[in-house]
Specification:
- By secondary structure, the protein is of the alpha/beta class.
- The protein has one domain: STAS domain (Transcription Regulator spoIIAA, 2-Layer Sandwich), CATH 3.30.750.24.
- It has five helices and six strands; from the N terminus they run ββαβαβαβααβ.
- It has a six-stranded mixed beta sheet with strand order 5-4-3-2-1-6.
- The longest helix is centred in the middle third of the chain and has 15 residues.
- The two termini are 12 Å apart.
Amino acid sequence: MPVTVQILPDYNLVYVRFWGVLRVEETAAALAAFARNPQCRPGQRHLVDLTRLTDIERNYPKLMELEASKVEMLAGTGIETFMVYLANTPIGRRATNMGRNGWPPECGVVAIGLENEDDALFALGLPFRSIADMLAHSTAINT
């Protein structure tokens, strides 16, 4: 599956990494596994790494369903969620725009897109210079 989701409870962070082709079914399965994980909590910050994404499945009706399920799962808890999309390629930036635009203003999710790993970690208030460093110093729970 070209998507992994790791919960880093020490940092109240969910790290999502995509690579290859973003496929709706695989992404939905990863989202469902995350939602079932006992460490899944409202208000966790999210770092969505799209730097290794090469394409997006062009099944737009299914993508819209996926976006709706994201909103249902993460929004409406009354607790704000901060989400950083990290993308440094045209396809990654396209996925970022799709992801950011999927959050209605009233849902309580604040989503930004950044192109630099250091900036993304800084925006999340994390004391690391790289994602590799963050993962090396974290206890990750895979979903």
